[in-house]
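User: Modeling request: complex.
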Amino acid sequence: MFSQIRVQNFRGIKSLKIDGLARLNIFIGENGCGKTSLLESLMILGNRAAPQLLLNLAAWRDQPRASPQFDVPLRCFFFNLDPRVRISLGATGEHGERGLEISAIFGDYGTIPAVGGQDEQKPGDIFEPGPPATTGEDRIGGVLYRILPRTTGDNMRAILTPQGLLQPQPPFLVASGDPGAFYVHARRATSLNETANVLTDLAQERLEEMLYELLRTVNPKVRGLWAGVRGGQTAVLADLGEQLRRMPIQLLGDGFCRICLIATGLAGRNAKMVIVDEIDSGLHYSTMPGFWQGVAAMCSQCKVQLFCSTHNEEMLRALVKAFPEGTNDVAIFRLDRQVDGNVEPTRYDTEMLRTAEKIDVEVR
Amino acid sequence: MALSGARTAAAVSAGGFKPSPETRAIVIVEGKNLEFLIRGLFPKLLQTRQIWVLNGGGRDDMQSAFDVLVRTSGFREHVKAVGAIYDAEGDKTGTARSLSAAFRAAGLAVPQAPLKPASPGPAGGPNTAYLIVPHEKESGCIEDMLLEAYAGNQPPECVERFMSCLQQPDRRDSSAINNWKAKVKVHSLIAASAKPEQTLGESAKAGLWNADHSGLAPIKKLLELI
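Assistant: Request completed. Predicted assembly structure:
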């Protein structure tokens, strides 16, 4: 579990350091304060061995993909679109320090020594890309991606280009010990394949009831889910008891599908971090306290750390209702953008939320 | 920005209060009654000195209310002074101790005594001051001060008779009145006024209590200090 995160020059954040992370972390703040940038940085840090995920960031923000002629999506990794300043991401947790640096390669990226060849890199070697094909060019041909810290042999590097990932040197094996992060961006509603996989895993261990309990906070009629393949397409059907036929979950509404997706992430075996942008999306206010309780129970049972954002006041009020005795498992951070571009966090616990509600003070 | 009476959009968003550029100072008070009373008594002073009156809840919420207040968006940017007004109730010293602890835990300068403002250290922050009411009394509440400032010449006879009746020894639970005489009398005076349905805050707005009376001067002084 991460207890601290540090972000520098990434997306909308010039500098941000957050201490006191809990099992459930909720980020609030005005539009453009850096919430989504922070969640994206957590996603990257949780999946350091998969640098190609960086290329997905553009799609998740409705940008066209980068190409050799179109470097804007790569440029957008950098604060103020200034690729001259290196990105640095870091986290501290029960497994020690985890870090990452990303810097731009101007012009065409250099050659990378072939694996097994004369110039093959050894762990700990310093690897630099070759000189750009066209010197003085402002166009970004790719980014150099380094996993830190260097002292532990994690000093692995790769070059990410618009076409994809070039052979990492050495292969990213050490970093596979990273927690793994399941990311639900703001517009992501469902992923039947992932849900089907998780459902199968849970069914094998007779743990599927855990997932259903969270779904019942939105639709109390849910008795179970059934996953299968028809015509090569994955189908996930919900058993609502009273219905003769099981229904495709897509027919149960976006809110249900999204919770299904979040539950998939929480119960999945590959990710110990679940990251959800705009977690309230599709949720009716009456379901929110039960949803928080269900999420907290799943996080605890599956040893998952949740990071999410919301603008929704009812979602915060629901936290107070969900944990009437207070809890140390929940931390709320308001992010405030400063004039210089730095982002400052302010931490609240559920007890403070209760007082804020009582004395009518805005925490968002 | 009109700070008197009704809350204004500039300082209160849909969710609740947060400091705006017009919020130069904040005074935290004990409960909604005191909040609306002070708004009703000193509307012009609050407006000209850009003071926001914030209900800090009950005594048990004091620490948490301070913690929440200093965390609000815009607090460090806009707020130059923080005051507090709490009832002495049965223990003025205990109230003073709680207030000092609340200021300290919230990272604010700690005033050494009532109406003795404290300045922040080199790290900066707002000036602070507090008042325990009734001022310079060991116990009591804001209503003790209000009674001194009753704008009528004499309390109506019916009020005196009512108070006397409540304290008859043969009346069941007559001892319960002892700790709340001032509160009961204030509400009796409101009930005996031209608008018996008024709340405490409305009665202040309507002039039932003389805001310029020396009995209320300590509150005015606190608002001028911060």
